[in-house]
Design a protein that fits this description.
Layout lengths: L4 E4 L10 H21 L7 H22 L7 E5 L3 E6 L5 E5 L3 E6 L3 E6 L4 E5 L6 H18 L2 E4 L7
Parallel strand pairs: 5-8
Antiparallel strand pairs: 1-2, 2-3, 3-4, 5-6, 6-7
Helix pairs in contact: 1-2
């Protein structure tokens, strides 16, 4: 299905350690492992553990680069199609797909998109991960259009009117 709007997200905004701190930490681990490997006697039995540590550090480096950059394509995105709202927050994370035909009410705040479904359940999508104001404005405009098309109530602001 053709996408009306698709914007990349910044999953590192949600991380407990920033992307730069994670990079510095993993490079420190790699340098430490290399130092331990080359500074020690090559016949030492503990060299096996140094190699394992080095492989794990390189694996973690690949993981954080894949999660926080678009080297392997856009892995974290917010998308509005003619029938669905989709949010994917990166590798190894589930895709959240919400059919617009099932939405009873929608509330847009500065930090989140709250959806009340026709069956009474509520969904919340995090809008803090959207990179640019222009993209957030574009998403809000498309959500307003979808509210008119699918005939559900749409409120905006800091107070939650869904409850």
């Amino acid at each position: 299905m053709r996408s009306l709007v698709r914007v990349g997200l910044r999953p590192s905004r949600h991380a407990k350690l920033s992307f730069g701190v994670q990079l510095m930490l993993v490079f420190f681990w790699i340098i430490s492992a290399l130092f331990l490997i080359f500074a020690d006697n090559p016949t030492n039995d503990q060299n096996f553990f140094y190699y394992v540590f080095l492989v794990l550090a390189i694996g973690y480096l690949v993981y954080i680069v894949a999660q926080n950059t678009s080297i392997f394509g856009t892995q974290a995105y917010f998308e509005i199609t003619p029938a669905y709202i989709v949010q994917k927050q990166g590798h190894f994370r589930p895709k959240i797909v919400i059919p617009l035909s099932e939405v009873a009410a929608m509330h847009i705040s500065a930090l989140a998109l709250r959806l009340k479904m026709k069956d009474g359940t509520q969904q919340m999508l995090d809008l803090r991960l959207i990179r640019k104001r222009k993209n957030l404005k574009q998403i809000k405009e498309h959500l307003r259009n979808m509210a008119l098309k699918f005939d559900f109530s749409l409120t905006e602001g800091n107070v939650n009117h869904l409850s």
